[in-house]
Amino acid sequence: MAQAVTREAARGRHHDYVLPNGTRIALDTYLGKNLVSLASEGGEAPQTPGAGVTYPMAYLVQQWADSEIQAHYHQADQFQLFVQGAGRIGTHALQGMTIHYANSLSPYGPIVSEGEGLQYLTFRNRWDPGAQWMPEKAQRLRDTPDRRHFTASHDIDAAPAGQAWRELLPETLPGLGAWLVHAGPDGVVRGREPSQGAGQFWYSLQGEMTIDGRVLGPNSVVFVAPDEPALEARGVGEGATLVVMQFPRSF
Fold first, then answer.
1. Which conformational region is residue 224 in: left (phi greater than 0), alpha (psi within -120 to 50 degrees), or beta?
2. pLDDT tens, residue by residue, 221-241
3. Do 156-246 and 3-154 have the same topology in CATH?
4. 242, 182 in Cβ contact below 8 A?
C-alpha cells in the first residue's frame, strides 16, 4: 500500500540545523531518516543491503533569507520542488514554483535564497547519507566509471490542468518523468504504472483528495513503490492539483 503523510504530521518532525558554511535551515520530515533528523534525534542510519533498495525520503526545507547552500551532490537520485520564495539554483532563477531533478553523483547548485528565504521539498527513492560538498568531494566523481551526470530545472505553471497529464520533465532517462494533473471534484486520476520507473512521489499543491479511503489535504506526500499497483486519487470538494514525480529505472 502507498505511504501517505500529511503536512501536519511532517510539521511534528521539525528540526533546525546549521550547515558547515553557517547557513541556517530547518527540515520538516515526511518520510525516512535524513542527516538532520539523525543529528537531532540520535540513532543510526537505516541498514540497507545495497544501492538497489527502495527507501523513500521526503522532507520540506526552509532556508533562511540571503544565504547559500554550496554546490554538492548526493549518492541517490533526487527531485526538488521549490514552492515558495526567491533566489536561484545554479543559474536558474527561482520565482514561484520550480521542479529540479538531479541524478545520483550529479553536482548541482549553489542554492541561493533572497528576500524572505526559500521553501522546497526534497524527494529521494534511495537512502542518502547527506550532501557531498564540492569541490572537496570531487575525487569520488572522477573515480566512478560510467557515471551518468544529469540535472534539469523547469518552472511550473500550477493552474489546474484538467485530468490531462501536463508534462513537466521529459523522459530524458528511461522511466524518468514529472507531471502536473488535477483531480476534479469527485473525479478519479489513475497514475502511471509504477513498474515503469523506480518509485513515484505524489505531492498535493492545493486542494483535497482521497487515496485508499484516506482524505489528504494540501501539501501531503504519497510514495508509491515500483512493485505496487497504480495509484488512484479522487478529488474532494474543489479537487486537488498534484505534482507526480517518477524516478528513472536503475541502470
1. beta
2. 999 999 999 999 999 988 889
3. yes
4. yes
Question: Locate cell 533526487: which residue?
Answer: 78
Query: For 36-65, how does the pLDDT look when each residue is reduced to its tens digit (9 = 90+)?
Result: 888 887 767 776 546 678 999 999 999 999
Q: How is the chain split into domains, by residue range? A: 3-154, 156-246
Give kind and range of the element (H or E) at residue 138. Answer: helix 138-142
Position 161, amino acid: A
CB neighbours (10 Å) of residue 101? 26
Contacts of 154 (CB under 8 A, 6+ apart): 98, 99, 100, 168, 169, 178
Classify domain 156-246 by CATH number. Answer: 2.60.120.10
Mean pLDDT of 116-144: 95
89, three cell numbers: 539554483
Cell of 192: 502511471
Which residues lie across from 61 on neighbouring strands?
27, 120
Q: What are the cell numbers at 140? A: 569520488
On whether the pTM is more than 0.90, the answer is yes
Distance separating alpha carbons of residues 7 and 219, to the nearest angstrom: 6
3-154, which class in CATH?
Answer: mainly beta
Q: Which residue has the cell 518532525?
A: 13
